[in-house]
Amino acid sequence: MILSVAVLVSHLAGAPPLSSYQPEPAELLRARQLMLSRPNECVALTNHFLQRQEADPVQMISSRQDFDHLEQARRYRTREQTFAAWQLQALCQANEGLLLPADVSINQAIALARRHSQHDILAASLLIKAKLALAGQRPEQAAALLEQAADGLPADTRLQGDLQLLQAFTQLHLHRFDQARQGFEQIRLQALQQGDGPRQAWANFLLGEYYQLLQQDELALSHFVETLNLLGQRRQYYLKAMAAEKAAAIYAALGQGDRAVHYANQATTEFELLGNSPLLIGSLINLGRVTRAGNDANLALVYFFNALDLVKIQGDSALMARLYLEIGQSYLQLGNFGEARHYLDLARGGFEHGGDLARQTDALLQLGRLHLELGEPGLALLQLERALGLAQQRDDVPRLIESHRLLARLFETSGNPIQALSHQKAFHAYFERASKLNRLLTQSLVQDNELQLQQERELTELARHGEQLQQDRQRFALLATSLSLLTPLLIYGLLRNLLRSRRLQRQNEELQRTLLLESRTGLPNWRQLMLRLPQEMAKRQQRSEQWYLNEEQARPFNDKIYYLLLHVPFMTDLSERVGLGQAAAIQQRLGDYLRGRIHPKARLYDLREGQFIYVISQRQVAELQQTLAGLERMFAEFPCEFELDRRLAIGIIGHPFLPKAPHALDDLRLGDILYLAMAAAHQLSERTGEPAWVELLAVDCQQAAFFNGDIRHCCIQAILKGLVKVNSSHNKQHIDWHALAPAPAVPD
C-alpha cells in the first residue's frame, strides 16, 4: 500500500455542507473535528446521531411549524444530515482501519443519494468509496467508481479537483506512471495558478511518491521537502507529518543521520499536534530508530519510553512487545546488559504469545548478542540455535544469515574452529542466495567483498583468539572471587537502605493522613474538602450537561449535591469558656459522636471557627427539611456536662447552582453564595433565638450572565428580583439582604 488508509481518506473533509436553512448538528460538527485525531469517538458520535428519527421534509419547511422548528431540529435528523452522517462514519471507520464497516456505511449514503436523486451527494460518496477501494488495493474498482462520479459531477464544483487528484493517484496504483505524472503536474500547475496551497502540496507529495516508486530518491526527497515548505504554518498536520516521515526515511538511507533525525522529529511533532495516538506511536518508534542509528541510544530510549506510555494506555500487546525489543536493543548498544536482558525477555515472551515468529527470531538474535557480549557462550548458543530453528522453519533468509554470522562468531571466540567454519560457510551460502534474490539483506549486512575478506582473515586468527579467551577467563575468575567477598557487604547495605526507605514511606503516608484531618475533632478538614471538591463538581457538571444535551428539561435536574454550611455557636468560644483541656476533650468527643451519627453516604468537614460543611447527594435526601431536622437533633443530643449554645445557623445550596450552565460558577464563587446563605440563617437565628436555616435556589430560567461581577452582590440582586428563590425555616421577609451586601471601600 503506497499510503496509509488515513492519508487516503483525510484529503476529502467529508460530506458537502448542509442546506443553509438549518445549522449542522453539534454531534456532526464534533465528529468532523475528531475524524483524524480520534476516529473511534467520531464513529460513536455518528452512530448516536443516526439513532434519531428522520424528519418529514414537508413538516420541516411548513410555515405552520415555525414555532416547533428548533425542537424538531434537536430531536430529528433531516435527509441532508443523514447523508453527511453516513459519509462521516465511513471516513472515521476507515481512519480506524475498519475498511469493511466503512464500505457498508458509504454504501448506505450511496443508496440514499440514488433513491432521492441527490447527484452532488452521490458524487461525493462515490469519491469516498473510490478511496476505500484504493486503500484495499483494488485500483480497478476505484477507477470504475471515479468514472461514475465524473458523469454526474458539475465542472465548477469543488469536488472536481478532488476527482482529478484521485484519478491521477489511481493511475499510479495501476502502474501507469506517465499518465500519473502528467496528472499530478497538471493539478499542481492549476493549484499554483488558483493560489490553492493545500491542493498544490498534495499534488507535490504524490509526485514524491511517484519518484520514490521509480527509486529516484533524490527527486522524491526534493518533492517531500517542497511539500513541507508549501504548507508552512498551515494546520495540515497529517500531510506535513507524512512528508517529513518520508524525507527522514530517505535521508537515513543516504546515511545523513542529522537530517534524518531533524525530519523524523518534525514528523513526530506534527502527529502530536494531530492528536492521533496510534500514528504518534509509530512516529516515535521511527524517530527512536533514526536517533539510535546516529549513535544516540540514550535519546532514543526517551522516545521509545514515551511511545511505550501511549501503548500501555491502548493495551496493544503486540505493539508493546515491539517496543520492548527496540528498548532492549538500545540498552544493548549502551552496554547496560541488565536492562537489555529484561526488555528482550519481555519482547520474546510477547512475540511468542502473539505467534509473531519473525520478531521472536529478532529477539532471540539480540539475546544471543547480549550473552556474547557478557561472555556467556552457553546461553548465547541456546538463544542463537533457537533463532536459527525459527528462521529455518520460515526459510527467512535475512535472519538465517544473521543467525549463522553470530554462531560463527560464537564458536570462533569459544575456541571451536570447526563449528565456526561450518557456520561461516552457511553464512556465505545464504549471502549468495540473498544476492541472487535482489538485495534481501540490509545495508549493515551487505559489505560485498570487503566483508568476505574480513571474515576470511578472522578464520585464520581463531587460535590467537582462543589464547586471548583463556586469559580473559582467568581474569574473570579473579574478579568473581573479589566480588564474592564484597557481596555480603553489598547485601547488608541494600537491606539497610530498603528498611529505612520503607520506614520513611510509612511515616510519609501517616503524615499525609494527618494533614487531611482536623486535629481537634478528627474529622476531615478543608484540605480534604479541596482535594475532593473539583472531581465532585466536575462529575455533577458532566451529568448536568448530559441532562441538558439530552433535552430532558421537561423534568427538573434531580442529581444535585447539597452543600450545607453549619455554624455551631458553642464551638467558637469553647476554649475561653471551659479551658483548653476540657475544650479539647469535648471537641474530640464531638468528632467521634458526629462520625457515628451522619448519613452513611454523607460527608462532614470541620472548617474550624465553629463551621462545618455537610455534603450529601440529592438522591440520598427524601426531604431536605428532614435532613435539616436530623442535623439539628444530632447537635442537640450531643451529651456534655457543660451548658452549650446549640442554635445552629445553616446555609444551603445545591451544585450545580445553574443546571443549564454548570461551568458558569467555580468553587470560590459557589462558596461565596454558600456563606451568604449561612449569614442570612445566622441573622434569623439571632433575631428569633432559635436554630435557623436558609436555602438559596436559582430558578430554572436563570441565565449565567446575571452572575458576572461580584458574586455576593449579584446574588443579592438576584434574590431581590426573584431570580434566586429563598427557602427558610422562618419568615424569609425578616432577612435584611442589604445588610449582608459587601460594603464599598472607603477612599483615603
UniProtKB/TrEMBL annotation:
<dbReference type="Pfam" id="PF13424">
    <property type="entry name" value="TPR_12"/>
</dbReference>
<dbReference type="InterPro" id="IPR043128">
    <property type="entry name" value="Rev_trsase/Diguanyl_cyclase"/>
</dbReference>
<keyword id="KW-0802">TPR repeat</keyword>
<dbReference type="InterPro" id="IPR019734">
    <property type="entry name" value="TPR_rpt"/>
</dbReference>
<keyword id="KW-0677">Repeat</keyword>
<dbReference type="InterPro" id="IPR011990">
    <property type="entry name" value="TPR-like_helical_dom_sf"/>
</dbReference>
<protein>
    <submittedName>
        <fullName>GGDEF domain-containing protein</fullName>
    </submittedName>
</protein>
<dbReference type="GO" id="GO:0005737">
    <property type="term" value="C:cytoplasm"/>
</dbReference>
<keyword id="KW-0963">Cytoplasm</keyword>
<dbReference type="InterPro" id="IPR051476">
    <property type="entry name" value="Bac_ResReg_Asp_Phosphatase"/>
</dbReference>
<comment type="similarity">
    <text>Belongs to the Rap family.</text>
</comment>
